[in-house]
């Protein structure tokens, strides 16, 4: 169903106006980047530079494919993580049912490049947005699109906007169940059921299923998370039973979807159920694809611990995304200033994590850095690397430092292009983002 056409991306021409592109290189189409023989470690690309390691990316595709197959759930990865159709294509080729987006602009990107099953894990609102969805569905007759609804006011606004045009078919909505103190989502079972009845009775919107997001309540305490997420899944199932008993769901199947990147294993165990129609249980994890070296690395240990011996013994997800920079100054003992900052790497959950060092012409290879090295502060264009003033081999001006990140979403959006590299950090290609 999803037939991805990447040819417009591969034909796009890059030049030195693109951050990270070699400063004196000729303009090239993206399709030719991997054949240039460029090497990060040889100094062919300007720093800072965000790179994706091919081997880790391929490993993560296989890991999630195997996990969803073993748990018999489907996957619609959240595209907002990367906003990279080239990666979308890899995820779909690895077995993903479709993609998830956060807004109508992202839906348009998916539709443009051939994604034909899309969940918008957000409310559809605004006459322009509703009209755009209707136009996309007319243009792409095979586009299956589901959005969230959580109030009669939103439903009424959608109906009013739809009256301004002529939909070729009904729009399809998922009732969102929310949590107290959270963001969107109906808070009570009774209100959700009333809304489900209103959607089912709508002239232009059909009820395709239910949705929730458990990530806002994740604590990192594995046992507590199992209880909290399990309770939310039970609420979804109770509402599903009530809606099904009244015949409110339209279409040949019923979608039940949850599962961010922190506790998708609990969703995969607790959410599947039997109803009068086939049930599609869909996870929406997005960060798994490149993983990270901080927040999700820690949370994955809970996923593995809860998932049994088979998942504890096999390698877990691997961090594929790194940001490399150079030591530009060592102005005082215990401090080195790096040539990257908030414009280059995530800092919303925690600072980048120094992992690797390479000293051109002086080292025989890459080295792991001491675990005590930390990024203490970042400015727009600078990072403050702290280490012991007694360090036997401290950072030196000119050293290359590779950092892992914590939360891939807010690193991807800082780069129009990210380079893919092999395990020797030779460039194998380029990934275009659409933020």
Can you walk me through this structure?
By secondary structure, the protein is an alpha/beta fold. The protein has two domains: 7-53 and 317-432, Beta Barrel (Lyase, Ornithine Decarboxylase, Chain A, domain 1), CATH 2.40.37.20; 78-285, TIM Barrel (Alpha-Beta Barrel). It has twelve helices and 20 strands. It has helices spanning 7-11, 54-71, 85-93, 104-113, 127-139, 152-162, 189-201, 222-245, 264-270, 295-306, 309-313, 409-412, and strands at 13-14, 28-29, 49-53, 74-75, 99-101, 117-123, 144-149, 171-177, 205-212, 254-258, 279-283, 321-332, 335-338, 353-358, 367-368, 374-378, 383-386, 400-404, 417-421, 427-432. Strands 3, 12, 13, 14, 15, 16, 17, 18, 19 and 20 form a ten-stranded mixed sheet that branches. Strands 4-11-10-9-8-7-6-5 form an eight-stranded parallel sheet, with helices on both faces. Strands 1-2 form a two-stranded antiparallel ribbon. The relative contact order is 0.16.
Topology of this protein?
Layout (H helix, E strand, L loop, with lengths): L6 H5 L1 E2 L13 E2 L19 E5 H18 L2 E2 L9 H9 L5 E3 L2 H10 L3 E7 L3 H13 L4 E6 L2 H11 L8 E7 L11 H13 L3 E8 L9 H24 L8 E5 L5 H7 L8 E5 L11 H12 L2 H5 L7 E12 L2 E4 L14 E6 L8 E2 L5 E5 L4 E4 L13 E5 L4 H4 L4 E5 L5 E6 L3
Parallel strand pairs: 3-19, 4-11, 5-6, 6-7, 7-8, 8-9, 9-10, 10-11
Antiparallel strand pairs: 1-2, 3-12, 12-13, 12-18, 13-17, 14-15, 14-18, 16-17, 19-20
Helix pairs in contact: 4-5, 5-6, 7-8
């Amino acid at each position: 169903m999803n037939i991805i056409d990447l040819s417009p991306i591969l034909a796009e021409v890059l030049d030195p106006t693109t951050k990270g592109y070699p400063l004196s290189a000729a303009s090239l189409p993206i399709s030719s980047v991997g054949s240039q023989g460029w090497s990060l470690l040889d100094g062919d690309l300007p720093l800072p530079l965000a790179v994706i390691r091919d081997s880790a990316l391929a490993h993560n595709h296989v890991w999630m494919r195997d996990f969803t197959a073993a748990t018999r759930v489907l996957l619609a990865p959240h595209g907002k993580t990367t906003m990279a159709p080239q990666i979308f294509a890899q995820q779909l080729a690895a077995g993903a049912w479709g993609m998830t987006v956060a807004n109508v602009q992202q839906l348009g990107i998916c539709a443009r490049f051939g994604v034909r099953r899309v969940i918008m894990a957000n409310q559809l609102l605004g006459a322009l947005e509703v009209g755009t969805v209707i136009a996309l569905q007319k243009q792409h007759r095979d586009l299956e699109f589901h959005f969230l609804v959580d109030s009669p006011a939103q439903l009424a606004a959608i109906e009013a906007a739809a009256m301004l045009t002529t939909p070729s078919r009904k729009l399809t909505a998922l009732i969102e169940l929310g949590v107290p103190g959270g963001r969107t989502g109906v808070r009570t079972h009774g209100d959700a059921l009333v809304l489900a009845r209103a959607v089912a009775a709508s002239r232009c919107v059909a009820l395709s299923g239910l949705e929730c997001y458990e990530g806002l309540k994740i604590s990192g305490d594995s046992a507590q998370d199992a209880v909290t997420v399990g309770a939310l899944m039970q609420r979804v199932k109770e509402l599903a039973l009530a809606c099904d008993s009244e015949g409110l769901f339209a279409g040949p199947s019923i979608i039940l979807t949850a599962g961010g990147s922190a506790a998708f294993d609990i969703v995969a165990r607790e959410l599947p159920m039997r109803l009068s129609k086939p049930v599609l249980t869909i996870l929406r994890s997005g960060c798994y694809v490149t993983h990270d070296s901080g927040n999700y690395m820690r949370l994955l240990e809970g996923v593995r611990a809860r998932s049994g011996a088979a998942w504890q013994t096999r390698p877990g997800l691997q961090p594929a995304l790194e940001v490399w920079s150079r030591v530009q100054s060592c102005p005082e003992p215990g401090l080195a200033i790096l040539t990257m900052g908030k414009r280059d790497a995530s800092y919303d959950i925690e600072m980048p994590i120094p992992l690797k060092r390479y000293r051109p012409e002086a080292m025989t290879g890459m080295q792991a850095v001491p675990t005590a090295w930390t990024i203490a502060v970042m400015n727009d264009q600078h990072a403050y690397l702290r280490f012991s003033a007694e360090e036997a081999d401290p950072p030196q001006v000119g050293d290359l430092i590779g950092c892992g990140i914590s939360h891939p979403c807010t690193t991807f959006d800082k780069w129009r292009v990210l380079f893919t590299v092999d395990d020797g950090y030779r460039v194998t290609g380029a990934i275009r983002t659409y933020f």
